[in-house]
Amino acid sequence: MTPLTTGIGPHRLERMFKRFAQLASPGSLGFIGFGLAIFLSTISSNAASAQDKANKSTGSASRSSASDAELARLRADTIEKMKQTRAGTEKLLALHEDEVKKLTAEYRQRQELYNQGLISRAELNQTERARAAAMIRMDEDKRWIAETDIAITEASMRDVLVGLPAMAPGGYSESGTLIRFNGTASWSLADAAKIEKFFSQAFGHVLPITAFGQTPTHDRLRFDHRNAMDVALHPDSNEGRSLLSYLRQAGVPFIAFRSAVPGAATGAHIHIGSPSVRAVAGADSQGVCCKR
Ligand SMILES: [Zn+2]
Question: Which of 81, 105, 172, 221 has its Cα between 20 and 30 A from that of 72?
Fold first, then answer.
């Protein structure tokens, strides 16, 4: 199992958002418990209000360029902290993978002993539960790394996206790093269920969504990701190509990232919705960045 093929359905998103709340300021932990819908609407209204304030506060060109420079610096700092945390998580993943291997070996030994009547069912179950818990820890590490890679990719590619020529409605373009489609359907996150249904019917597992709307990560990066979602599929994979073809037929806009750096495998994904290049004021960019 790899991060790019691990399914992350909406039913698992709340747990994932809890993990992200651990990365954000302690104050953000409170509202996570109220559920995903409230979480998203809170973030959405906070981000909208922050955007209004940002618009009002940029009265002159010089102030605007100063705030742009400040924003770029904050983003660069946040990305650097995320990369450091990612390196720590890679080490943790290696430990958790070892743990799974050891517990799997132990479980097989105990299964043999149980079959010979030498240990009880309860003793076998104990190892089975420990192994299942270790696998959950390992999968969470992988998902966290995949989501972090995707967020870093979008943040790193922001300047490239801003510099691209405007695309006509219905336009499509493909390069070594990006595939863009300016679909004309009035897309909103409420339509996500249709895409998930198509995907699960076609491939028999859930669409691997890593970010549904605005997340604390986008807040920290000062990105408006309120009406977009990220899918951890390489656009050139079989599943990725099918999804892009479906989105084009449905007129849903997307940007597919082949990778942050040509030739690198990490960070490849499909961003469904308009590009998230617009800035929003972050909640805690100066605060704790990347604790897990
Ligand atoms: Zn995205």
Answer: 172
21 C-alpha to center of ligand 1: Å?
Answer: 18
Q: Could you tell me the distance, in angstroms and rounded to a whole number, from the CA of residue 16 to the centre of ligand 1?
A: 16
Q: Which amino acid is at 60?
A: S
Q: What pTM, to 2 d.p., does this model score?
A: 0.69
- 271 alpha carbon to ligand 1 midpoint, in Å? 4
Helices (H) and strands (E) in the chain, counts: 9, 6
Question: Measured in angstroms, how far is the CA atom of residue 26 from the centroid of ligand 1?
Answer: 25
**Strand blocks (E) in the chain:** 172-174, 178-181, 209-212, 229-231, 254-257, 269-272
pLDDT of residue 159: 81
pLDDT in tens, 4-31: 333 344 334 444 434 433 333 333 322 2
Q: Tell me, in angstroms, the distance from the centre of ligand 1 to residue 90's CA.
A: 23
Residue 211 Cα to ligand 1 midpoint, Å, equals 7
**CA–centroid distance, residue 56 to ligand 1 (Å):** 26
Give the integer Cα–Cα distance in Å for 232 and 89: 18
Cβ-count burial 161-188 (b if 16+ within 10 Å, e if not):
beeeeeeeeeeeeeeebbbbbbbeeebe
Give the tokens for residue 219: 């807040």
The encoded tokens of residue 78 equal: 């946040």
User: What are the pLDDT digits (tens) for 77-133?
Assistant: 999 999 999 999 999 999 999 999 999 999 999 999 999 999 999 999 999 999 999
Q: Which two tokens stand for residue 245?
A: 């073809």
DSSP 251: T
pLDDT at 75: 87
